[in-house]
User: Which sequence fits this backbone?
């Protein structure tokens, strides 16, 4: 019996296996996957992978490309025949064969294409055989010219029929025909005037409007994209002897009967064109049958019947009927269906191991029955060498007891009058151990309660047998598992407990190969808050919610649809993370909105309708909860189901969205109503799935836009019969509580799950791989303690539900260990490596696993400081414990005390307790930096000295070598002065600092030191004493009468000067600038002038010295210094304005002019303010 085996390799390698399971070692036919990494060096005869079509029409304007590609191992070489003889490609300079393939490129430039017309065939061969292509017939496309003819005008009486013949030239391929006028407009066609399949134009009857002189038939040749035109035909319709109304008759096909032939799979076209007046209508029927549904259609105003993909059943008589008011006529067309050869089963590649037997089957059909001939490596099998292991019987070749080296390619040729089929199938004799092609550790993810398919694609010769394991437990075909012929493991309904590691093993007589894959069963994606029906006013807001619950490892996306299409591209539509908001709702927004929540594995969707109402005031409509449903009735009563029907109550102006069905189990939970299912608001019935051994009562609630109705009256009670349990207890766990016990626990079944009275639990256990099970049957408990078990031993455990009506399904085996005991062996070869004064590294050898007597949780390292190497104290610290998990054999000990002596030991531990300790190891830590000095205090001795006192550090961490004292003055802004350092011997605990500055704030830093370095510093601040005598003298001067009088005189003088300046400025005093410039030959300070009260120039520097060499710029401008207040600053222009006598007459505009002067000199005009400044 033949069967097909298909295997796929993740990452792209594909393999097809055809398995032939027969008693006499009939083996599989398969295609060898040529993956260089997986099957390096595996031999394979040639296989044609690409070739040109059998009938190849070429364009004479382009090069000829003939394709022939093949694969094989080693890669095949190629040759060609043309018209049955060898075609020497190398001798024709116009022909090139592409490297690595048999593809031919024929350059026809300068040649006539017809030179290369003919029948071509490609041969691909390697050392294992030869494959051949189809016969490829090369023909040049042709578009011959229309023969010259002169069309005489056609005269016809009104009402008669007319045929305008096209008769286009025969082209290759045939041209496409259409009729047009002189303006290149298609001639209108209708039920009266239409074009036939042969291109002729038929008139069922002519009218006066048919008179015209431009009936032109066009032929378009698709290969060359050329269009040719027939000479125009002139038609003149006369009305002197019109034809009267008449019964229809057939113009085409003529007579009452005709016959046509069509090939299976082609399109059948039947045509009936009738003469008649009025214009007849055409209809079609099949005699003794119906037209094939979905495959027939009408064209050309019902005159043409087309049937696609013709089958043998489409043969028979078809009747077309032409009818008008004068009567009717009919024509019967007999359709004969013939068939070119077609495959029922094409021969498949066959891989056999030595000594095996296999079949090549060439199963074809056709009408007439095809003739089958066989070839081997391209030669007729009759002329090949006689092979006693080969037997040919019509369409089957049987190969028996094959030998290494007998690989070959066989060709099956099936032909009849209408065509042929050619197939290559190789036979490869291989001896190959199994290879698993599925990726190692491939991850599969499925949704809970769906089907899971785990691949185990393999290759080998003989064909490997596939076996599956989960957690070392063999998997056999069952209700849960099914192993396909191709090795794929199917889990019918995957549950979370099916997650885990699976192993497949491929084996044949040459070896075994295993592969591991992993399955993850994910929680389904469910919309928990669905969008609800909305009825909103125009210009308001509509919000649809769509919240989802999903597996935490999957991230769902959200898509919103409106009426099953995309949302409008409108900013009014706002999509949130769990909602859709529509702002400013309009009437166009009405429709059904669907939320789709997608993950990579599944999706869920929900829909709701939006209704938009006018915002204008309307009579108040009272919306209320619906009335409860009534007339509950139970029908179609079965063992596990029943149909519930009801009558809805009043909706109260709000449509009912859904009905909620609840049930009460009066046997197990009387008085408790539980939700059972929901149905749409348009339903009034529901098919309910039931459980055995339940006393059901049902009630129904209705939900509308306002809320839930009251519950209906309960239905009559419906009792289901008891049955054996459908499920077993879940959450079965095995745990060890003491060295000689094992606890088996589970979740008990609910009353609804019991399915019958007498619920008990059949608990069974045995040591792994043991034959005998121990079983107890318990009731009303959820655990059982097994005593007398050996320590930490792997057990297989099952828990099965049973009741008075039988046992539940076959339980799954759960693995677990009995109780643990403490380890018996201490770690050995413990070594300590001191890294620094505060850290050490410890190494040890792992204890033998056989001594652990449980799950090794890790090692406990206990270490204790015994004493300090410096103080010689023996105050031991409390031991410290570090835990290193797993099988670690190295650990670090942090936070050790420098310069100390330690003791250390290690012990292994498991879930029960600790094992024995290793031998104590002693180690010492080197010196470290000391701790900070303690009790640091600073005292004043006198105005310029301070005493610093301290006590040694609490933690010396080695031999103290001294102290480092640093100090520096700081001011009130925390700015530091020069830092000074003092090194002090280790026996010093105080130090006096002399020659300090009195009344100064100092900052001190004190560090203790060992050979390793300085420890942390202690920081202190202190003040030197204040000189009170100087302070008192300053205070006395400030209170003396003479000092107070002096200050008052200075203040009075300043006040007088200010008054004089103010008066002078208001009077506009004269400033003889010109004379002053002439007089300033020697740039010495000018004294105050007594006669006019003006001032000479003065510097405003702190020492009040006159400026040397000041000059007035040559352009007459005056520069203003930043601290001066010159009257020039108040001029309106760049130069000051003066009267003839030189007095200032400018306005106080406040405008200032700044020019560049040489160096830092001032060329400022004399100013009373300057003079005043010089006196300050």
Assistant:
């Amino acid at each position: 019996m033949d069967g097909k085996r298909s295997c796929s390799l993740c990452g792209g390698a594909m393999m097809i296996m055809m398995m032939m399971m027969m008693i006499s070692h009939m083996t599989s036919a398969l295609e060898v996957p040529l993956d260089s990494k997986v099957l390096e060096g595996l031999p394979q005869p040639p296989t044609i992978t690409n070739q040109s079509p059998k009938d190849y029409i070429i364009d004479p304007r382009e090069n000829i490309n003939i394709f022939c590609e093949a694969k094989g191992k080693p890669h095949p070489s190629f040759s060609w025949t043309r018209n049955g003889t060898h075609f020497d490609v190398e001798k024709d300079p116009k022909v090139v064969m592409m490297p690595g393939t048999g593809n031919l490129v024929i350059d026809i430039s300068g040649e006539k294409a017809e030179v290369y017309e003919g029948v071509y065939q490609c041969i691909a061969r390697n050392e294992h055989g030869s494959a051949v292509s189809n016969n490829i017939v090369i023909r040049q496309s042709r578009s011959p010219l229309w023969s010259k003819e002169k069309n005489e005008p056609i005269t016809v009486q009104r009402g008669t029929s007319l045929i305008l013949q096209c008769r286009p030239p025969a082209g290759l391929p045939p041209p496409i025909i259409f009729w047009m006028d002189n303006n290149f407009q298609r001639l209108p066609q209708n039920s009266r005037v239409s074009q036939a399949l042969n291109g002729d134009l038929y008139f069922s009857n002519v009218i006066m409007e048919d008179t015209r002189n431009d009936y032109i038939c066009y032929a378009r040749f698709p290969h060359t994209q050329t269009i040719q035109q027939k000479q125009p035909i002139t038609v003149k319709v006369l009305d002197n002897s019109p034809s009267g109304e008449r019964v229809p008759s057939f113009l085409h096909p003529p007579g009452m009967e005709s016959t046509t032939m069509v090939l299976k799979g082609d399109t059948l076209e039947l045509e009936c064109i009738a003469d008649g007046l009025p214009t007849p209508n055409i209809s079609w029927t099949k005699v003794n049958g119906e037209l094939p549904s979905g495959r027939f259609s009408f064209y050309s105003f019902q005159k043409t019947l087309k049937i696609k993909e013709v089958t043998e059943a489409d043969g028979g008589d078809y009747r077309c009927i032409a009818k008008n008011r004068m009567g009717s006529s009919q024509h019967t067309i007999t359709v004969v269906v013939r068939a070119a050869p077609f495959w029922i089963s094409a021969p498949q590649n066959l891989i056999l191991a030595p000594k095996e037997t296999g079949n090549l089957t060439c199963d074809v059909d056709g009408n007439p029955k095809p003739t089958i001939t066989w070839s081997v490596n391209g030669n007729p099998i009759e002329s090949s060498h006689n092979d006693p292991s080969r037997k040919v019987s019509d369409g089957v070749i049987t190969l028996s007891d094959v030998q290494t080296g007998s690989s070959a390619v066989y060709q099956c040729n099936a032909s009849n009058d209408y065509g042929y089929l050619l197939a290559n199938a190789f036979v490869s004799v291989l001896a190959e151990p199994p290879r698993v092609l599925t990726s190692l550790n491939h991850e599969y993810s499925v949704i809970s309660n769906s089907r899971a398919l785990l691949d185990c694609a393999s290759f080998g010769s003989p064909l490997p047998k596939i076996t599956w394991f989960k957690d070392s437990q063999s998997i056999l075909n069952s209700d849960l598992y099914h192993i396909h012929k191709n090795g794929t493991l199917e889990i019918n309904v995957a549950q979370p407990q099916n997650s885990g590691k699976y192993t497949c093993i491929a084996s044949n007589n040459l070896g075994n190969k295993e592969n591991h894959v992993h399955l993850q069963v994910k929680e389904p994606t469910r919309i928990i808050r669905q969008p609800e029906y909305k009825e909103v006013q125009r210009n308001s807001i509509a919000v649809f919610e769509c919240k989802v619950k999903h597996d935490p490892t999957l991230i769902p996306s959200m898509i919103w649809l409106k009426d099953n299409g995309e949302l409008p591209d409108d900013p009014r539509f706002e999509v949130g993370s769990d909602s859709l908001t529509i702002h400013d709702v309009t009437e166009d927004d009405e429709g059904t909105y669907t939320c789709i929540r997608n993950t990579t594995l599944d999706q869920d969707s929900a829909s709701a309708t939006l209704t938009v109402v006018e915002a204008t005031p309307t009579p108040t409509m009272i919306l209320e909860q619906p009335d409860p449903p009534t007339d509950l009735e139970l029908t179609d009563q079965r063992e596990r189901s029943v149909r519930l029907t009801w009558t809805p109550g009043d909706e109260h102006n709000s449509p009912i969205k859904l009905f909620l069905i609840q049930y009460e189990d009066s046997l197990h939970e009387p008085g408790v109503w539980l939700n059972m299912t929901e149905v749409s608001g348009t339903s009034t019935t529901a098919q309910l799935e039931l459980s055995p051994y339940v006393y059901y009562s049902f009630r129904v609630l209705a939900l509308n836009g306002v809320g839930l109705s009251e519950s209906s009256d309960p239905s009559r009670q419906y009792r289901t019969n008891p049955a054996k349990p459908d499920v077993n207890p879940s959450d079965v766990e095995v745990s060890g509580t003491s060295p000689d016990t094992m606890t088996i626990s589970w979740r008990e079944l609910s009353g609804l799950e019991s399915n019958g009275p007498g619920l008990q639990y059949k608990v069974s256990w045995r040591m792994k791989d043991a034959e005998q099970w121990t079983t107890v049957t318990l009731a009303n408990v959820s655990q059982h303690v097994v005593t007398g078990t050996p320590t930490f031993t792997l057990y297989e455990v099952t828990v099965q539900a049973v009741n008075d009506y039988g046992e539940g399904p076959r339980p799954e085996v759960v693995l677990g260990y009995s109780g643990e005991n403490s380890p018996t062996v201490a770690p050995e070869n413990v070594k300590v490596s001191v890294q620094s004064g505060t850290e050490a590294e410890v190494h040890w050898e792992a204890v033998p696993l056989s001594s652990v007597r449980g799950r090794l949780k890790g090692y406990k390292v206990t270490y204790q400081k015994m004493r300090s190497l410096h103080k010689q104290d023996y105050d031991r610290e409390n031991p410290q414990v570090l835990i290193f998990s797993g099988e670690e054999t190295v650990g670090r000990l942090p936070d050790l005390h420098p310069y100390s002596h330690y003791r250390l030991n290690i012990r292994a531990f498991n879930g029960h307790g600790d094992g024995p300790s290793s031998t104590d190891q002693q180690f010492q830590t080197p010196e470290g930096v000391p701790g900070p000095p303690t009790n640091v205090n600073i005292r004043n001795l006198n105005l310029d000295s301070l005493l610093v006192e301290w006590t040694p550090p609490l933690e010396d961490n080695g031999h103290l070598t001294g102290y480092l004292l640093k100090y520096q003055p700081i001011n009130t802004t925390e700015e530091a002065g020069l830092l000074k350092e003092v090194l002090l011997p280790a026996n010093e605990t105080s130090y006096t600092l002399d020659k300090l500055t009195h009344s100064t704030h100092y900052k001190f830093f004190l560090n203790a030191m060992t050979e390793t370095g300085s420890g942390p510093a202690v920081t202190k601040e202190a003040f030197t004493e204040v000189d009170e005598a100087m302070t008192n003298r300053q205070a006395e001067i400030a209170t003396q009468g003479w000092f107070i009088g002096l200050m008052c005189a200075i203040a009075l003088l300043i006040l007088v000067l200010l008054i004089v300046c103010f008066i002078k400025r208001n009077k506009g005093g004269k400033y003889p600038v010109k004379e002053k410039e002439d007089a300033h030959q020697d740039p010495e300070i000018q004294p105050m002038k007594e006669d006019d009260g003006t001032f000479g120039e003065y510097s405003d520097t702190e020492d009040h010295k006159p400026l040397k060499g000041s000059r007035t710029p040559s352009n007459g401008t005056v520069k203003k210094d930043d601290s001066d207040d010159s009257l020039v600053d108040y001029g309106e222009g760049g130069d000051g304005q003066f009267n003839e006598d030189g007095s200032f007459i400018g306005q106080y505009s406040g405008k200032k002019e700044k020019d560049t002067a040489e160096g830092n000199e001032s060329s400022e005009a004399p100013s009373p303010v300057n003079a005043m400044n010089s006196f300050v």
Summary: The first strand starts at residue 2 and ends at 8. Residues 1041-1067 form the longest helix (27 residues).
